[in-house]
Design a protein that fits this description.
binds flavin-adenine dinucleotide, about 375 residues
Length: about 375
């Protein structure tokens, strides 16, 4: 046996790195196991930026979580000494009857979030990088922005290590077993360890490690494109709010120039390619670039210049596209988190805090009712 810990965290990406930090800060003996590097480009958290939205069209119930997440990002950047959250303002733009526009507005109203509704013309004049189509309306929420995602992981890992956490990279969990009298035994490709609790935050691989999640956390290939705009100043963080845009061609999202010299654009569910994480191609081709370049040309002002980068990334999709954060049925020593359906990174700070609560105290004051596993078994087959 290589060592005994209070908690082993499998997967040191977005969620796992935050869990390691919050656990170590509270004095737990933590081991974080990561099969690749910290950070790396095979999972869900790379590509420099992730949108931070408080106006939460998916459900107003996320707003208290995102508020707490933002507080924690600010605390973490202070402790780490580098900026992690960049406030640019955020826009959710769609036709008036679209669920994204309506949901975004509803969450602003339900939670008294400062916001303004702009016509397409008003938005395009105020933010010259935009070219929203006629008839669209935009919810502008000034606290929207982005999280520097790889920097956030680095911050959580560095702070966790400073608080005593052990982090092992290039070490893959093979399986785990309950131990008589409580706790778990974890076998990796290098050693075997024991701990009181196991947190599985393995992102797109979680369904391969946790049978209860096999059918309800499905990896999906995404592609991100960065295009050089003709006038970069209109696409910098001080002039370009992060954007969610619903148009005939799909659901697009965009963040300003940061880390890569181009406007970043992605299309939700890109080409609808799902399958085991290791089977999804990390190569990119012209068919990946085409819909992103089309959107860059049509919905932004001179943004379809030379390609600066094109990268794949993985979503982990649940049937209702809400998160799963729970203990396993009949196995309270095993906690699962991370199928976040393509919108989880902004929450990783607060999810780390919640995972630390669950691992240390067996409960949390956060309302996890919408994230429980049981909601799927309750549905008719
Ligand atoms: C293209 C794209 C755009 C997105 N945009 C946004 C956005 O704008 N805003 C937002 O909030 N969210 C966004 N998301 C979603 C967000 O990025 C994810 O919800 C988040 O990164 C998931 O974090 P995670 O910790 O679950 O996964 P990861 O960060 O991938 O971490 C899981 C880790 O587990 C490791 N692992 C797996 N198996 C093992 C094993 N057996 N042993 C050891 N380690 C293992 C992996 O190597 C990986 O490092 C986006 C996602 C993508 C792909």
């Amino acid at each position: 046996m290589a060592g005994a810990y209070d908690v082993i965290v499998v997967g040191v990406g977005g969620m796992g790195s935050a869990a390691c930090y919050h656990l170590a800060k509270r004095g737990s003996r933590v081991l974080g196991l990561e099969r690749f590097d910290v950070p790396h480009s095979f999972g869900s958290s790379h590509g420099t930026t992730r949108i931070m939205r408080l106006a939460y069209f998916e459900s107003p119930a996320y707003v208290p979580f995102v508020r707490r997440a933002l507080e924690l990002w600010k605390e973490t950047e202070k402790a780490y000494g580098e900026q992690i959250y960049f406030r640019t303002g955020g826009i959710d733009a769609a036709r008036e009857d679209n669920a994204v526009f309506r949901g975004s507005l509803e969450s602003c109203r339900a939670h008294d979030l400062p916001h303004k509704v702009l016509t397409a013309d008003e938005a395009n004049r105020r933010f010259p990088g935009y070219r929203l189509p006629d008839g669209h309306l935009a919810v502008f929420q000034p606290d929207g922005g982005f999280i520097a995602s790889e920097r956030a992981i680095l911050a959580h890992v560095t702070l966790a290590q400073a608080a005593g956490a052990e982090i092992h990279c290039r070490e893959k969990m093979i399986d785990w077993q309950p131990v008589a009298g409580g706790g778990v035994r974890v076998r990796t490709d290098r050693a075997t360890y024991e701990a009181g609790r196991l947190i599985v935050a393995a992102g797109a691989w979680i369904g391969e490690l946790v049978p209860d999640l096999a059918l309800i956390s499905v990896p999906e290939r995404q592609v991100l494109g960065w295009f050089q705009p003709a006038e970069p100043k209109h696409f910098r963080p001080d002039e370009f709010p992060v954007l969610v845009l619903i148009v005939d061609e799909g659901f697009f999202y965009a963040t300003p120039i940061w880390g890569v010299p181009g406007l970043k654009i992605g299309r939700y569910h890109h080409r609808n390619e799902r399958g085991p994480a290791d089977s999804l191609s990390r190569e990119v081709d012209a068919a990946d670039e085409a819909p992103l370049r089309h959107a860059a040309a049509r919905y932004f002002n001179g943004a379809d210049g030379p390609l600066m980068a094109l990268k794949t990334c993985l979503f982990t999709i649940t049937p209702d596209e809400h998160f799963i954060i729970d203990t396993l049925p009949g196995q309270p020593e095993v906690i699962v988190a991370s199928p976040c359906s393509g919108h989880g990174f902004k929450f990783s700070s607060v999810i780390g805090e919640i995972l630390a609560d669950l691992a240390r105290d067996g409960k949390t004051s956060a309302d996890l009712s919408q994230f429980r596993l049981g909601r799927f078994s309750a549905q008719p087959a």
